[in-house]
Amino acid sequence: MCGTEARTQLPLASSASGCSCCSPQDSAVPSATAGTSAVEFAVDGLTCGHCVQTVEKAVSFLEGVESASVELVPGGRSRLLVGGRADEAAVREAVTAAGYTFAGS
Question: In 15, 56, 73, 91, which residue has its Cα 20 to 30 A from 103's Cα atom?
Answer without folding.
Answer: 15
